[in-house]
Amino acid sequence: MTVVDENEDALSRLGDGWPGTFIVGHGMDADLLRDSGIEDADAVVVATDGDNTNIIIGQVAQKRFDVRCVVVRVLDPARAKFYSGRGLDVVCPTSVSIDRLMEAARTCALAPVAAESE
Prior knowledge:
By secondary structure, this protein is of the alpha/beta class.
């Protein structure tokens, strides 16, 4: 397992027991992706803080390097829906959060309220 990040400090967020490789650089650099082993990868997860960057890197992994399993984080629900219909496996934390919040609100609304006479 290899992580590519522009910020070397990101390695500390992986924890002391990180069993994989960490490469400092940008995921849109095709040579860096090659050096990271993308040509032999079973899967690629793209989760930068930019939707456009994630989509481009995901498409490069899928189309240029023929990675079969490409999972891309996309924050914009409309964009997530669009690209999930075009072969990318998209995870949209915004949609997941909205769904969970709505579920929690419905659950609260349906919870029995103690009788006022008690």
